[in-house]
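Listing S7. Sequence submitted for prediction.
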Amino acid sequence: MREPGKSDPIDATAIARAALREGIDTLPVAFLDEQALEIRVLNDYRDQLINERVRLASRLRWHLVQIAPELEAKVRPQGLIGPQIRATVAIGLTRLSRSPQVRVARVILKRICEIYHEEGELLAELQALIEAHCPQLLAEHGCGTVTAAIIIGHTAGAQRFPTDACFVPPRRHRPDPRQLRQHQTPPAAPRRRPPTQPRPAHHRALPRPHRSHDPRLSRSRSESQASPR
């Protein structure tokens, strides 16, 4: 008798029997061509640069709080995005008296500017590679250069999928409540993705509907406003 909930041994046995029945040689094989590998390597390196830039920006702001709090107040919460704010910080650091902390802040700001420049070059290179490899992705609504690079780099040869339905990623398994009560174990807490990491590509590429054009939403709003509280 099968127990409620997910069973990995049963699923593995069913998959093995299906593979033997259909023939192992006929099953699709994952592959990654050289162009897709180049796109993935460059995009992963760009993500590493972004993580390094975020850490350096936080460290620079920590130094500015101590040596120039009025200059740190001019920096937006988003960081040092934009050449104007970086130039303002650089000019403000040149006006301060010489000290080891000011010297370190100048070095950090210089490295941040170099990373921004390298990020722009990598983004332009990725744009050209994607246009040559799979330009139809860029034509999709809500799919930019970074999202297309993630999709190309992580699908490992999407040509093996016969239909678009086979390409849809599987949903996460939810434990059976009866099984949880039986073993008296609480469900595992969901793992939160760090803010510096990009969202999964299949979520970023989904177009978002406009709420103002949804008739059901406008009707529910009008009914809630008309109903007495």
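Caption to Listing S7: primary sequence and predicted structure tokens for the chain studied. The mean pLDDT is 78. Residues 29-164 form one domain.
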